[in-house]
Design goal:
8 helices; mainly alpha
Length: about 220
């Protein structure tokens, strides 16, 4: 399916097409880390442990029992915290300092055997992708938390859970399709971040105006 799509588009030459699975894997790890870091680590570790998917050599550590236990436990903590209004935003704030470097490291590990240049490029692009996803998620959840009822927060959180699992499956089963979908996601995320930034500036402007009026 991926080869037929690439040939139909006429955008990807055959040598580059062979790199698509690795690119999709690195992108999926970085993208997923911005949403559910611990779940991504646990899922890929479990796939490798059970022999359902061959992990790159530099990612085989994810299948170690100690890493599986830690990532599994933290997945439960994250999935629970993410369902509670405002606790989810606090969790996102703390994990800003964990998700982004972890996403960069996971993406770099995919190309760890391809030389220093590819590894560094994967780390830079992976970290940027994780950061974009993380801040889009954090901004969206902060906006949703202003709703007085808790159900919208729960619905968005469950949607993220399903989206991560579906995205990881798509990256493994149809890597080129995943990369195309990711490109659409990134455009939407950038537009969303612009909307959030305008909203924050508007709130700060209103706050300064109120303070000035109160003097």
């Amino acid at each position: 399916m991926n080869a037929m799509l690439a040939q139909w588009l006429g955008l990807i030459p055959e040598p580059a097409l062979r790199q698509v699975p690795a690119l999709a894997l690195a992108a999926a790890l970085a993208w997923g880390a911005g949403l559910r870091l611990y779940l991504v680590v646990f899922v890929f570790g479990l796939l490798g442990r059970l022999g359902w998917w061959p992990l790159p050599e530099n990612l085989e550590v994810l299948a170690h029992p100690a890493v599986l236990a830690a990532s599994g436990f933290m997945s439960l903590v994250e999935l629970s915290a993410d369902k509670i209004p405002w606790i989810d935003s606090a969790w996102d704030a703390v994990n800003t300092f964990i998700r982004i470097p972890a996403g960069a490291a996971l993406a770099a590990a995919v190309f760890g055997d391809s030389g220093a240049a590819w590894t560094l490029a994967a780390a830079l692009l992976g970290g940027t992708l994780t950061a974009t996803t993380h801040f889009a998620k954090s901004g969206t959840r902060a906006a949703v938390n202003t709703s007085p009822e808790p159900f919208s927060n729960l619905a968005v959180s469950l949607g993220e859970d399903a989206g991560v699992i579906g995205g990881l499956w798509l990256a493994l089963a149809h890597p080129l399709v995943f990369l195309l979908a990711l490109a659409v996601f990134l455009v939407a995320a950038v537009l969303l971040l612009r909307v959030i930034a305008r909203g924050v500036r508007r709130l700060l402007g209103n706050g300064r105006a109120s303070s000035a009026a109160g003097r």
